[in-house]
Specification:
Blueprint (H helix, E strand, L loop, with lengths): L5 E4 L9 H14 L7 H7 L4 H9 L4 H18 L10 H10 L3 E5 L4 H11 L7 E3 L11 H10 L6 E5 L2 H9 L3 E5 L6 H5 L5 E3 L5 H6 L1
Parallel strand pairs: 1-2, 1-4, 2-3, 4-5, 5-6
């Protein structure tokens, strides 16, 4: 029996294989806004941070009007222009179902906007697995632990009974800051070496390994 009652998932790069689309759309936005086109690696580094903050970091922007322009161009590309597929990782839905059947509460803490998460849920028909979520619209951007603290408060579950699952150092850091256990995934955008610095209880290489981590 797992000690965890609450499992909090990051979305992009942890549950959904969306890195390629995010990178493509960010590069499209750069071109549209006459900015230097970032490399795949550069975009990968900021995946997980709330969009506006990520764009400011990626392009070293302080001008709010220019930032607005890039944000709008990215959203336009993501919703209407770019056809890069963003499937769930193989086995993700089966993992959700297994954890729920074992009595665990599932939640999401993501840098996506609320509208983006709802769209992803609709595309994958997975909203019913999750009791709560916090998005970029609701809380301070990762690596602030604000999303996690809000989830704990609304769900009335203790830190000791909760675990964060994520593919970035931002996910690991936000959990570590408040003493929450964390599981890193090596198949996302940040290398395992960087995740290990935040002392996760485990690192998995396939989302289907997660239930076995909880059984240990």
């Amino acid at each position: 029996m797992s000690k965890y009652k609450l499992v909090i998932f990051d979305w992009d790069g942890t549950v959904m294989d969306s890195a390629a689309k995010i990178i493509s759309c960010m590069q499209t936005a750069a071109k549209a806004c006459d900015l230097p086109v970032p490399t795949d690696s550069e975009v990968g580094h900021i995946i997980g941070i709330s969009l506006r903050k990520a764009i400011k970091i990626l392009f070293s922007l302080s001008d709010e009007t220019k930032t607005d322009q890039v944000v709008d161009a990215y959203k336009e590309a993501f919703v209407y222009q770019d056809s890069t597929p963003s499937p769930l990782f193989d086995g993700a839905e089966e993992v959700f179902a297994a954890l729920k059947s074992n009595g665990m509460t599932l939640a999401v803490a993501t840098g996506k906007a609320r509208r983006g998460l709802v769209r992803a849920w609709e595309q994958t028909n997975t909203a019913h697995y999750f009791s709560e979520s916090r998005c970029a619209d609701d809380a301070e951007s990762k690596p602030s632990p604000d999303m996690l603290l809000q989830l704990l408060e609304v769900l009335q579950i203790s830190i000791e009974e909760s675990v964060m699952i994520g593919d970035t150092t931002y996910d690991m850091q936000m959990a570590q800051t408040i003493g929450m256990d964390r599981v890193g995934v090596s198949y996302g955008v940040h290398a395992q070496l960087h995740l290990e610095k935040y002392e996760p209880v485990a690192i998995i290489h396939d989302i289907r390994e997660l239930p076995t981590v909880f059984e240990r």
